[in-house]
Amino acid sequence: MSDTRHKVPLRRRLSTVNSSTGQQQEGKLNLAIVSLTEAIQLDPGLAAAHLHRGDAHKQQRRYESAIADYNVTIRLSPNLAVGYYNRGTAKIKAGFRESGNSDIAKARQLDPNVGN
Fold first, then answer.
1. DSSP code of residue 60
2. For residue 31, what are the CA distances in angstroms to 16, 20, 23, 91, 106?
3. 10 three-class SS
4. Per-residue pLDDT, 32
């Protein structure tokens, strides 16, 4: 299996993530998820792609999928407060209030302004 990260320039991988943000803002969530999945296939270590795909899943109320993407985001970038915050809000919406509140508390330890 070849490593596609070296074949696809970082600029292109990040461009895919950035274009998906616009798609999300326009309500084109399925298209954003497809774009982000392609970015993840090109570079599975791109935390931003997992984070934004989690956001799109959360907007679709697909909380388990969102939580799974946020889990990867946190594994890749354990000091990224927004990963914990977004996972916490997804957990609360999925009915896991205690665990969600714990994630939000962790996020605020990392960045007191997260979620404001």
1. T
2. 11, 8, 7, 24, 31
3. helix
4. 87
Instruction: Tally the residues of the chain.
Output: 116
Domains of the chain (ranges; CATH) run 4-110 (1.25.40.10)
pLDDT digits (tens, 9 = 90+) for 66-92: 999 999 999 999 999 999 999 999 999
**Which of 104, 73, 57, 49 has its CA nearest to residue 113?**
104
**Cα dist from 81 to 44, 62, 70, 88, whole Å:** 20, 21, 11, 11
pLDDT at 20: 63
Q: Which two tokens stand for residue 100?
A: 């969600």
Residue indicated by tokens 């993407």: 69
Structure tokens at 8: 């696809």
CA distances from 49 to 15, 24, 56, 73 (A): 11, 13, 11, 8
